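Input.
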Amino acid sequence: MKENEKMKTQFTLREIMAFGAGFAILTIACVYFLTTLITNRSPKNVSAATFDSQITPATSSPSALDIGSSSSKWRSIYLSQNMNIDGKVVWTNGVAAGATNNSISMLKAGSVPVTYAAFVAGTLQTITVASTTLNELAGILPGDRVFVTPPPALNDNLAFMGARAITDGIEVKLKDMRTSGSNLASAGNNWSYLVIR
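Output.
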C-alpha cells in the first residue's frame, strides 16, 4: 500500500516538472515572438540614420513609397546637396488642421534686372521682366505671391509701388514722385525677389 502511494507521488512530481518545463519554453517563445514583432513592426522615433546608397521607390508617384508617417516621424534631416520636391511642403506644427492654407508648392528666389525708361515727372511705369530675359522666372503664374526688394542705388525720386506675378515673369511698378522737372534718365538695377505659391 505504501509502495503504491509512493509511485503515485513520484508520478505527480514528474507531471509537475514536465508542466513547468513546458510552460517555461512557451514563455520564452512568446517573449521572443513579441520582441521580434515590436522590433520589426512598431513605429519608432528615429533620431539619426545613415544611408550608403540611394533610396529609390519601386514605383513612381502617386504610388511611390513614403518615408515616415503621421505617427512615425523623422526628428531631423541634414542634406549636403540639393533637394528636389515635386509636391507641396506643408507645415503643421504638429496639428493636422494646421495644414490648411499652410503649404508651399513652389519657391523661387534670386536677383532680377529691372530697367525703366526715362521718367516724366509724376508718371508711373510698369516694368515687366519675363523668362525670356531671365530664364529662372519660367514657371511663375498669376496669383503667385511676389516680394521684391529695391536696390540701395534706386533713384531717390522713384517710389516702389508694388509687384505682381505674371505668366513666366514679374511686373514691378515705379512712380516718379516729382511734380515737375526734366525727365529722369533711363536706368536699371538688380532687385532681389522672392516668389511663393
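The longest helix spans residues 2-41.
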